[in-house]
Amino acid sequence: MNGDSILQEWYDAIKSADSIDKIEEIRIAVFGKKGIMNAEFTRMKDIPDAEKGTFAKELNIHKEGLNALLVDRKLFLAMEHLQATMRAEAIDVSLYSATTEHGSLHPVMETMDRIVEYFVAMNFSVQTGPMVEDDF
């Protein structure tokens, strides 16, 4: 295969990629519809039948190698990004934290408060008194 130097450039580009976006650009340039792998597979029709077998084997080896390197580099960069994010968002558990309120209002009380707010918004006044009126 006469494109070994070109493929070596892509191997080097993958190894030196510093972001997942760059890896994705390389993947598209290599394996995309107009990528070098597709062009090489298309070029197989011009190769004599006697050489097609070895050319195809060599091309598939390069294809698998590039794909494995892309996946490994992408995984490495993703892990590196995750570790950097975790370091940036680390929480110091030894620091003092303000106490938080525990519990909440009873659903009946929440409903009553909402009803009172509704009637106050309509200019009614709220009177408090005994819950049950009796004659005593």
TrEMBL record:
GO terms for biological process: phenylalanyl-tRNA aminoacylation. Pfam families: Phe_tRNA-synt_N, tRNA-synt_2d. Residues 19-84 form the Phenylalanine-tRNA ligase class II N-terminal domain. SUPFAM superfamilies: tRNA-binding arm. Residues 91-136 form the Phenylalanyl-tRNA synthetase domain. Keywords: Aminoacyl-tRNA synthetase, ATP-binding, Ligase, Nucleotide-binding, Protein biosynthesis. The keyword Nucleotide-binding applies. GO terms for cellular component: cytoplasm. One of its GO terms (molecular function) is phenylalanine-tRNA ligase activity. InterPro entries: aa-tRNA-synth_II/BPL/LPL, Phe-tRNA_ligase_II_N, Phenylalanyl-tRNA_Synthase, tRNA-bd_arm. This is Phenylalanine--tRNA ligase subunit alpha. It comes from Sulfuricurvum kujiense.
